[in-house]
Amino acid sequence: MDDVLSRQSFCERISTTLLQLLNENYGVDLTCNKCFVQRTRHADLRKKGDFQIIKTMLAILEKRYAAIDDEGKAFELRLNESLCLLIEGSRVWEIPLKSWSKNDRGYILDVDKYKAFSYILPRVLNLSSASQPTSQDQYILFCHVNAKPTLHDLRSLFYCEVMQRHFSNTCRVFLSKDSEDNDTFQDIISSLNMNLNFISLTREETPKQTTTIPIHFSDCIQESDEAYQCLQALRHSRMTTAFASKVINNYKNLTCFGCREKVSQSLKYKVQCFHICNQTNTVVVQQTQLFYAWQKDCERDNPVDFGQDDKYFCHAGVRNAANITLSNFLDMRREQIKESFESKLQENTDGDDWDNVFKKMRAAVLRLEFLKNCSKSQIKLENRLSTDAIFILYNYSRICMLLQAFSAKVNQGYYPDVAIEHLDYNCFREDAEWRLLIDYLWPFNDVIDNTIPVFENHNVVLNCHHLTEYLHQFCRSISAYYSRHHILVEGLPHLIPTVSARILLMRAAKRVMDQAFRLIGVEPVSMM
Q1: DSSP letters of 417-470?
Q2: Is 135 helix (H, G, I), strand (E, B) or coil?
Q3: Cβ neighbours around 188 below 10 Å, total
């Protein structure tokens, strides 16, 4: 994806260039590791400019320069001179700065909107699918679930699907559970259109128990004892609670580590293992790893470090005050979606075709509903449909229907077809159009970067909620724009260039939403 679709990179460029100009003015070489330019925060400031210099950071710079200033020339005067040079020098940028101003809230920078539209919009329209990482590493995802599926497990499966899409669609996925009945999980994955080609582990792959399991694993280890090399390798990692917890003497979740070893031995590349679980079973998962390490120590069979590089993603689960079962919850959501369609369309919605629509709609709604919160926060289960999810999907379908109507009008000869090469960017005159570009289309790459899994020691941070929040805010702006400004206008030939510009803007919005939906596995419906 083009770096120009990163608004944050543009802010950093301004910040770096302005700092260089200040250094030249002072004749010094100060550094600043933080970007001190940002999108203007308040609505009244946005009317005056697009970006602002952070006042607190500017005050820090003023103190640092004052400490080494030999001429006694005012910082404000030097800053004004540097800003004038910044505006002049930015004329060669792809998106130049137009002007700067100062008010009681600080310094404001304005962007050349014509150049911004002409540079960003074509690149958004040419967005391709998100590329997969190119690495020789092999990834294994262990999704730790219960024998009988719960709402916690449903959230785990959605996160597992997102991580599989990030690594590669050929990434191996294993369901680790204390049951050999796969039909229920297979039905859930199929009914929600999950892109999970999972392998359910069996008890035959569980390590054999040869001796009595200790009450606490910490009892096995002494500082000078070399008998437990595998346990020692895990002692000072994230296993503190698991070492002190009472061991559960059963085979739940033990299968994953026996299988992991077999897979590791069969591949010539490095194997990176990720464990996805919720807070109700995270300690059990860690105890399982300790059990397997202890088992290898006891047998003195290949006593090597085992699993010290494994990474864990643990979410907070679902708050289910009504204790509704997963199957009842899925049925309830389907009936609610069916009722909402019947209420709007005022017609019967029985039949296989409608069933497929409801199945697709339910799968999309549940992904948006279960991924909207930070993973560290519980999802509060609502008996009613998620209004945020419905709002996002409704606005997407609204855009699809608009573009379909335009295509039909083109075929009928009402409008000429539009091409980005012939677009008159001066037709973007409305503030709402500029806000769609600068606040949503331009920073799309930044949102994607915030959604990519981040590894912190042995933990995985996955912030899907940034993407769902972006979609919700984007749809709010699209809805407001769509309601206030007519896009398809007939009988007024002089408005054809404006219609063409707005159609291309809506195509860009759809392209961005398609990309965002693809990353979290949402398959939206084109008509609601």
Answers
A1: ---GGG--GGG---HHHHHHIIIIITTHHHHHHHHS-EEETTEEE--HHHHHHH
A2: coil
A3: 18
Q: What is the pLDDT of residues 101-127, one digit of tens each?
A: 998 888 999 999 999 999 999 999 998
How far apart (Å, rounded) are the C-alpha atoms in residues 319 and 131?
Answer: 35
Contacts of 136 (CB under 8 A, 6+ apart): 269, 270
- Distance between first and last Cα of the chain: 31
Q: Which CATH superfamily is domain 335-520 in?
A: Isoleucyl-tRNA Synthetase; Domain 1 (1.10.730.10)
| pLDDT of 74 strictly over 80 | yes
Q: Which is nearest to 36 in space by CA: 53, 14, 18?
A: 53
Q: Are 308 and 234 in contact (CB under 8 A)?
A: yes
Q: Which of 152, 193, 172 is nearest to 273 (CA)?
A: 172
The two tokens of residue 466 are: 């940034």
Token pair 């679980």 is found at: 277
> Rg of the chain's alpha carbons, rounded to an integer?
28
Question: Is pLDDT of 224 > 60?
Answer: yes
CA distance 466 to 7: 16
Residue 22 CA to residue 29 CA, distance in Å, equals 9
Residue 468 has pLDDT above 60, yes or no: yes
Judged by DSSP in three states, 103 sits in strand
- What is the band of 41 on the pLDDT scale with cuts at 50, 70, 90? confident
- The predicted model scores a pTM of 0.87
pLDDT tens, position by position, 166-220: 887 567 777 776 555 566 788 888 889 887 767 665 555 555 555 667 778 887 8
The C-alpha angle with vertex 353 and arms to 350 and 356, in degrees rounded to 5, equals: 100
Pairing type for strands 318-319 and 379-380 reads: parallel
484-493's contacts with Cβ under 8 Å and 24+ in sequence apart are 484/432, 485/430, 485/432, 487/402, 488/402, 488/405, 488/406, 488/409, 490/414
Euclidean distance between CA atoms 121 and 508, whole angstroms: 7
What is the distance between the alpha carbons of residues 237 and 290, in angstroms, rounded to a whole number? 11
- Give Cα 129 to chain centroid, integer Å: 15
| 118 close to 64: Cβ distance less than 8 angstroms | no
Average pLDDT, the chain: 84
Pairing of strands 198-200, 172-176: parallel
Tell me the residue ranges of DSSP E strands in 125-278.
138-144, 172-176, 198-200, 271-278
